[in-house]
Design goal:
By secondary structure, this protein is α/β, with parallel strands linked by helices. It has one domain: Alpha-Beta Barrel (TIM Barrel), CATH 3.20.20. It is built from eleven helices and eight strands. Strands 2-1-3-4-5-6-7-8 form an eight-stranded mixed sheet. The longest helix has 17 residues, at 66-82. It is globular, with a radius of gyration of 18 Å. The protein starts with 22 loop residues before the first strand and ends with a helix.
Amino acid sequence: MTAPPNEYDVCSSEGPVLGGPLVDVHGHFGRSAATGYSSGAADLLQAMDRHGIATTLVMPQPTADRGTADRVHAEITEAVAGHPGRLYGIVNLDPRLPEAEYRRAADHLLARAGFVAVKIHTAGFAVAPDDPVCDKVFRAAADHDVPVMVHTGLGGPHTLPQRVVEPARRYGPRPVVLCHAGFGAFCAEAIEVAVSTANVHLEPSWCPAFSVRQMVRRLGAHRVMFGSDHIENIPVELAKLDAVGLTPAERRLVCADTATSVFGLPPSTLTTTRPEAAA
């Protein structure tokens, strides 16, 4: 007797099944000053095709050099325009910039089609989200009605998930996304922050599989979303989802629908790109 299809196979390391698009909310262009990791449009799009990712949200690596930041944001702008529905942009500027300079650059990008969020890279810029210098980031996001993404869990006390609580409550009900959801060591703290703060969502790249399971059980899959951070980490993050044992409805939310809702992505642009379908 032929075994029935695996009902949990909504997304896997071989790509999502037909009808199950995959959205990656955490991609990068540029070179990381911390690790030397580098990526761009060609490498990312190739990886998306290989792993069946329909859409990726992309931000620059953090840099205090305005020339580099402007150049990478321009690369993202060009890539988003050239691949509508496949790539979306995230603004990642130094929150320590003077208010007028930050707002001028952020407003310019957020006014363009395809930019859907702003990022506070707490580790890259050595700043906490509850520091007053980050108020301008939350104000810019509020003015453009987009989510704020915050690096959490690696890089010092300013990256702890609890530092998000006060500004997230002021910013609510708009979504705040904890990138890396505490980065393994502080996953439990990230979960408690999200439990106590209704507009906080979790992106658990680099977290253990059992922590991802706890996130979904405590918060619901509508508060958790897939992210990879690095191209080479995509199959690892997909394998973690395979290990978690989510229901089909939960996996659809984590793989795509949570991100579609949080970032206001049009569902019609989410198409499945399984490698075997393109062969």
